[in-house]
Amino acid sequence: MKFSCRRTDLLDAVNIAERAVASKSTMNILEGLFIEAKENEIRFLGNNLELCIDCSIPGTVDVKGSCVVKANLFSDAVKKLPAHVDEAKIEVNESNVILLSCGNAKFNFSIAGADDFPRPQEIDAIDDICVKEYLLKNMIRQTVYAVSQNDTKPYLTGILFDVKQNELSVVGCDGYRLAIRREELIHENPLKFIMQGKTARELLSLLGETDYEVKIKVSDKQAQLTLKNCTVTTRLIDGDYLNYEGVAKHENTLFIVTDTKDIADSIDRASLIASEAVKAHVLLKIEDGQVHINCETVLGQVKDKFEVEMQGDPIEIAFNPRYLLEAFKNADCKEIKLSFSTALNPVVIQPAEGNSFYYIVLPVRVH
Amino acid sequence: MKFSCRRTDLLDAVNIAERAVASKSTMNILEGLFIEAKENEIRFLGNNLELCIDCSIPGTVDVKGSCVVKANLFSDAVKKLPAHVDEAKIEVNESNVILLSCGNAKFNFSIAGADDFPRPQEIDAIDDICVKEYLLKNMIRQTVYAVSQNDTKPYLTGILFDVKQNELSVVGCDGYRLAIRREELIHENPLKFIMQGKTARELLSLLGETDYEVKIKVSDKQAQLTLKNCTVTTRLIDGDYLNYEGVAKHENTLFIVTDTKDIADSIDRASLIASEAVKAHVLLKIEDGQVHINCETVLGQVKDKFEVEMQGDPIEIAFNPRYLLEAFKNADCKEIKLSFSTALNPVVIQPAEGNSFYYIVLPVRVH
Question: Which residue in A22, A80, A14, A78 sits closest to A47, CA to CA?
Fold first, then answer.
């Protein structure tokens, strides 16, 4: 294998593919980065068996071939190449050593054979959808925060993509809160799949803010996303998702509209003493156009109040402050609407205008 | 105790005094922040017995008094006060609870009595010097990196201040490398003291870039620095410092001048494989106006070379790359001069122009 390419291209490709490299694995080869020099193209591949990222860059290939390098070492070396030099050269010699050179700087590392490295398979797509890059990023960000961190119900550790009636809903839920994000999507057949939360979080880093159309091909077991500069293949989570549309069907009797940052800051202050104490909750008392916030733990007490637009009956209701805070922080709009019924029913959080997201947070029973 | 003050003043004072609060201590009271309301002035005090920071701000005091609050909790609360409100109010009630309020936000925390909190004593100064703030910061930064991280020779964990012949020298050394930073200082009598490395590092955060004259009063056991916005009292390290002026008195036979960033980047690349391996060194071969750098470990090999201005005989000499790198990174000038004699004698690193710093690094014996 022997090729040259632009140093910055190499840096980008390694940074991207590295995201799918296993940091620790019983299979040593998965801690490696696969490099393949093809005709005028060099391919970098990271694969931890859950997620595979495949990134190609242009280059001048003298000798085709492939190898696997220790990912963290190679990536650090690429980052430290002299910034004033444009071209990087890579060559594997007969003694199975890879030589990376850039200007006067030269690195030699030993390599592993490429045969054992798991290549992603072309997936047997049953359907596909296209979503604009910036929109996909936004829909993932506004739902993935709500997924479960423990594995007792595996499907809750992922986000649901649900396509039907010309609408795409992305849903995250951990049993205590639920986040739904909807956008129009013209598509004939219904399609449902659950993407792993980990993969979704990596996608947040890989996706940009353009309106490039990301194609998502879906098979029974896998999804493959064609991003602008790489291809991401990921295992899907088996099983049925919960019936999210049946949640919080109660009738609401109190509606408030408030500045998102005001209520977020206020809950943030309360969570200062709640986060460190066990099972602490924050109490919201909403009446006469005011929200009174109160939190009391062994560490002390925090009180706050602010004015809101209010319609309906007063309420006293308690929440885990972290759940509220994460919902507010991912709301992405200046004003939000909160809808309540009783102290035992969940609150519904929506944008004051429009219906792009729909968040539900279960209250804490205090009496 | 009852007072009001500007929220931003409160924030600044707590941020500063908090730096001297013990994060974990067998004496609970040392994890606290001492607050004292005096006539038109509020004083905040952190004291971990090694270092004490005393910071006062103006305020309107209704009831004088003092108390000790849990430092991390109180500091977090102050940071989270509503940013649009100017005034913060603090009051201690009869049940030994401190009430911090700012706009509608109110925090209650329990407090400890102030009697047990160790106040700094007025020190019995034997001498004092004044150094401009920005200069003191620079002199500390350019020497403290070289102090020892282990306690076998306590005096090496601190930096020496040595005043004589109208010159202040600040010195850091760990036995393998030495950093000297000199500036003119008109002062009649010789004065020597060793400041703890920890204290010196805290001072880096506290000192600004102005030419405010910091007064340093020195007693047998303590030093007290009057900064622009606080007073720092610290224990000094007992004992004699090594005779740093007798180090590296050999005659040098090779001199090179090089771009500081070039050589630092080059050693940084070499250290990529050296830092992870045991007892790795980087070999410098200097001849014909070129520096050849080579580093070989179990992880691979890194080579580099660059041109330098050179006067004298060629040399091959090996170093711990970290020591070289830290010296270069703290050099603070575009070009540096390196002076060598033999492969067994230390290298002297100085600015290409002037003599503000003087660094010495011992080589590694490889043959």
Answer: A22
| Helix (H), strand (E) at residue B106 | strand B105-110
Q: Quickly tell me which residue has 């040259």 as its tokens.
A: A4
For chain A, say whether B210 makes contact (Cβ under 8 Å). Answer: no
Interface test with B, best of A108, A295, A296 (most B CBs within 10 A): A108
Give the pTM: 0.91
Other beta carbons less than 10 A from residue B116's beta carbon: 12
Question: What is chain A's percent helix, strand, coil content, to nearest 5?
Answer: 20, 45, 35
Rounded Cα distance between B69 and B53, Å, is 16
Instruction: Give all strands (DSSP E) within B7-59, no chain letters.
Output: 32-38, 41-47, 51-58
Task: Dump pLDDT digits (tens) for B152-206.
Answer: 999 999 999 999 999 999 999 999 999 999 999 999 999 999 999 999 999 999 9
User: What tokens were used for B231?
Assistant: 């007073």
List all residues 6 or more positions away from B213 whose beta carbon is below 8 Å from its beta carbon.
B130, B131, B132, B133
Range 74-93 of A in CB contact (< 8 A) with B:
76-77, 80-82
Say whether B16 sits in a helix, a strand or coil.
Answer: helix
Q: Do A304 and B273 touch (CB under 8 A)?
A: no
CA gap A245, A248 in Å, rounded:
8
- Tokens 């005011």 -> residue: A290
The DSSP code sequence of A127-167 is: EEEEEEHHHHHHHHHHHHTTS-SSTTSGGGGEEEEEEETTE
Could you tell me if A176 lies within 8 Å of chain B, comparing CB atoms? no
